[in-house]
Amino acid sequence: MNTNTQNSDYAATLLRVTLGSIFLAHGLWKVLTLGLPVTVGFFESVGFPGWTAYLVVAGEIGGGVLLILGVQTRAISLLMLPILLGALKVHLPNGFVFSYPNGGWEYPAFLIVASGVQALLGDGAYALSRVFGGNARLATAHS
């Protein structure tokens, strides 16, 4: 029978892997679909310096991979907040619903909250931090 601690570990893992996958997909989309020059141009068109596009792409790809693996989950979740706040700033004038033209702000706002929750929850089960971080708990959920 699972305990609440085990359920929390699994919930944290599910959130961590989901957030990591979303960040990774968005970063790869900017590189593989849009291309970096288009991404830089978009950043400039919404008032950000073009060079920040490279930081965002690196943050989304690197942060996404680290979250999926469960490495420094709390820190990475917090480090993603400036990227998400930038996305929120871009989408705020477009209205609430993300399906509005140019996307609304509901999706970036949700990701901000989810990243904050992840920072509070930590790694969850099946995280590399538990294996290499000196944590006494096992890398898998308790049996």
Number of strands: 0
Please report which band the strand proportion falls in: under 5%, 5-15%, 15-25%, 25-35%, 35-45% or over 45%.
Answer: under 5%
Structural class: mainly alpha
User: C-alpha Rg, in Å?
Assistant: 17 Å
Mean pLDDT: 91
Fraction of residues in helices? 55-70%
Explained architecture:
The protein contains seven helices and no strands. It has 143 residues and is mainly α. The chain has one domain (4-132). Helix 1 (4-34) packs across helix 2, helix 4 runs antiparallel to helix 6 (106-121) and helix 5 (81-91) packs antiparallel against helix 6. The longest helix has 31 residues, at 4-34. The protein is globular and about 50 Å long.
What's the structural blueprint in terms of helices and strands?
Layout: H1 4-34, H2 36-45, H3 52-69, H4 73-79, H5 81-91, H6 106-121, H7 128-132
Helix pairs in contact: 1-2, 1-3, 1-6, 3-4, 4-6, 5-6
Which features would summarize this protein structure in a list?
69% helix; 143 residues; mainly alpha; disordered C terminus
